[in-house]
Amino acid sequence: MKLTENTTFKVLLTIFLLISNTIYSQNSYFEEWYSADKEHLPQNSVKSITPDKYGFVWMTTENGLARFDGQNFKNFNNTTMELQSNRFLYLFGNIKKDALYAFTDERADFVSITKRKVNKIKKNNFNKNVLDYLDKRFYLNHQLHTKIHFLGCRIEDTNENYYLIGAKNISFYSSKHKLIKKVAHNYLPTNDYFLIHNELVCLSNSKIYSFFNSNFQTQNTLNLPSNSKTIYNHLTQQYFLCSANQIAMISKSKNKLFLTTLVKLKNDHNLISCVYYDTKNKKLFLGTQNKGLAILTLNKFTVLTNPTSTNNNYYAITALTKTEFITAKGEIYNKDGLVKDLKLNQNGNTYAITLDQQKNIWIQNDNILIRFHKATNYTTSNTYDFKTEIKTIFCDSKNKIWVGFRSTKQTKCGVATIDANKKKATPEWKFFIKDAVSFFAETKEQTILMIGKKRILFYKPNSKNVQTVSLGKNEARSIFICKDNKIWICTYNNGFSLLKDKQLIKLPFDTNQFLNSAHCINEDKKGHFWISTNRGLIEVAKSSLLQYIVAKKPVYYHHYDTEDGFLTNEFNGGCQPSTCQLENGYIIFPSLNGLVVFHPEKVNKIIPIRDFFIHEGETENETIYFNDTVYLSRKNTRVKLKIDFPYYGNGNNIHFESKLMLGENSKWISTSGEKKTISFTNLPPGDHILFIRKIGGFSSNYQTKKIVLSVPYKYYEKTWFKFIIILFIIGCILIISRLRYKYIQRKNEELEQIIDERTNALIKTVEALKITKNNLSQEILQQKKLIGTISHDIKSPLRFLAITAKHLDEKVSKTENETLKDNAKIMHESANQLFRFVENLVDYSKIFMEHHNINQLQKEPIEVVIYEKMDLFENIAVANGIQILYKNETAHPLLIDKKVIGIIIHNLLDNAIKNTKNGEIHISVKLEGKKLYVGVTDTGNGISEEIKNYYLNLLKNNETDKLSIQNYGIGLHMVLELVKLLNGDLKINTKKNEGTTMEIILDYI
């Protein structure tokens, strides 16, 4: 068959994809390059490389020293110190004792590296034999000389003991130059001498090696690769063999050497000049002659792909045997790769797969559920067509297959179950579960959990009762039931939560919020959760999650991404199962590009547990160094503190927080970014405490350090200055107080003089008042005498006149002379009125003249006073056709002031009789609470509004200038005065031609 151009292109593209995918999947490391071109290094020729005591990696270049902390470089050359040359050769010294050294070309400058600092030192008397060995090792590594011999060299170990190589023997000396041991040995120029674990090894040109401790008697052969370059790192005592396609390292165990291949190289690294292997973090540092620094991170994870397929996007997977698992495509894998492709599901979706107890494979393909039979090695199958799209499937502990469906408008949601124990089982529908179920799980109590739309359903097979838990705004992705039967819910938009007592307890996000889309959880044997996301894989200790729930303790999340060997950071979820674990301990997660397989105990975790340091800062572009206290000047308004922390793992796993104590509301602030700096501007004067902390690993404990920021006070802000100012202010206050005192004293003297003058005037006034008082007393006495005279000299004749007029009226009434009768009657009435008026006036005057307190007057029953007044006015009332009635509404006798009430009732009766003809007058008395009500009501003509308003206004205003006695009479005026004295009130109700009611209201005690 002849291929068309398009067909040929497709074939070639397929072959290319297969080859490239196969090659890429075999990469066993992640490679990063750092160079001067990217402003990392001061120069691209890296001469030597070594770690220091604190974990920082140092390297020499032809333009200075460089220090690497895992994220950033710090360079040292003649721009930071006084150097004659920047061409550094190699590093030497002692890592354990924090004493590293380096020198520039022709030994022009010597520097020491201690406590993470570089300092220029004077040329020390370094032992010539030691430097001779180091020079030869350095040049051997760089292959500038082909003939290297170590005769007479001195090789020091980490304890400063040393080996001295002679022509016939090798001697071992202590650090104090005392001979410890001497071994006979014939030196050969072709031999290589180096230390591993502080023991001298002799490696011949014929690949035979022997040890000093065995007196070079035991000889073994080491199978070294041909055409390989030897590079020895004398500071770390690591011996490497580098070829075009691999890097290997010699290791020692039980007096034997072994060659271990570290990496298979995908590029030519022949220009390697120095090597350091971080055995703990599985990182290989390669210094090159002209390309800078390469860091190879050995993969912790394996990514499996199908070499015969171009589609390595995986979803549902499940364990098939103890060491194998199967995908929803029907591909069987073990931890090393594809075992067999059953091709069970080539074109359908791959979102669900499950195995029943007979190891039959159940796979969904849109509307159809397929069961492949184990008995026929999965060559035969039977199907179930549900006529609606299947979302997920699950096999419970009773070997029952649960089927969940996608929600559609045309079909009714529900859940179907199939008994897998039967070869031809009919699906059983459970329509009482109305939700579209997307994920199933089963607890140890055999309760089935189902993720529905916005809720989680709890269903016990023996009961049709379905309990629900609302998910709120969460979109659940999967359910994970851990070993202790706790239920965890992963969501697509809100991380993950613990489901406890039918309540969702939200767990915190990681720093970068990669957990926002949490697909699923798997638990390893140590109780760590592995959570797949769209941004990589996250590991967390379950114990720290539970501690957060109980006590809000911090949670450490460890992040893995493509630097750790993934082909992509985007894992897949929304399927069932989204992860699986084999009995041999391996865990598998599906991703957009391959299946990520790993053993949790074999994953080398680079955890940020090392100590961090804060001893360097910048102010106005000036570098400052400090220990625990930073002394700042007031000229520098901005300070930047640098956190030194060697960490060679994923930068997302570093999380620093800082808090400056400036008040009660100080809060922890995240210090993010690769630079790891903390900046402050315009700090107030004083000593301020700065706390810096980071989470140190899965224990979720904080490592905290304290720094004091000391900002000096200006002279006017210092205590002594304030004290002087206070003394000055106190002195001023004392002087002003003294002057004020003198002023007040002078004023007091003037006031005393004025007071004396006024006192004299007051004495005179008092004397005048005394005279006035005596005069008033005399006047009062005269008034009393006048009242007495009136009472005796006027009242008595008036009483006699009234009596005489009465008799005269009675005598004349028998005559027939009408004129005489009328005159006698008028004379009788006038005499009585005049007598009553004088008697009232005398009693009224006596009240004010004889008593200081009106409430101390003689008290009698009110009935006596009222009946007395009724008798007094009886004749006049009869004469006018008036009937006087009295009503007492109180339940017990009332005691009143006789004269006061008598005058009041007298005048009220008098006023009522004057305004009434042929009618009735009602006197009423009642007691309500502590108020006494005395009322007089007549049926006369009624008083005018003008008179009513006059009396009421007079009662309120008490303005004597408005009195109109000549118009209205004196009677009611006396009543008003007495009411005011008693703090009482007067109520007047009147209606023309119907009568008037006057009511007096008094306090009754």
TrEMBL record:
Taxon lineage: Bacteria, Pseudomonadati, Bacteroidota, Flavobacteriia, Flavobacteriales
UniProt keyword Transmembrane present: yes
Domain Histidine kinase intervals: 789-1005
PANTHER family in UniProt: HYBRID SIGNAL TRANSDUCTION HISTIDINE KINASE C, TWO-COMPONENT HISTIDINE KINASE
Stretches that traverse the bilayer: 720-739
One Gene Ontology molecular-function label: kinase activity
Keywords (A to Z) from UniProt: Coiled coil, Kinase, Membrane, Phosphoprotein, Transferase, Transmembrane, Transmembrane helix
Entries under InterPro entries matching the protein: HATPase_C_sf, HATPase_dom, His_kinase_dom, HisK_dim/P_dom, HisK_dim/P_sf, Ig-like_fold, Sig_transdc_His_kin-like_C, WD40/YVTN_repeat-like_dom_sf
Residues in coiled coil: 744-786
Top-level division of the source organism's lineage: Bacteria
Keyword Phosphoprotein among UniProt keywords: yes
EC number: 2.7.13.3
Catalytically driven reaction(s): ATP + protein L-histidine = ADP + protein N-phospho-L-histidine
Protein name per UniProt: histidine kinase
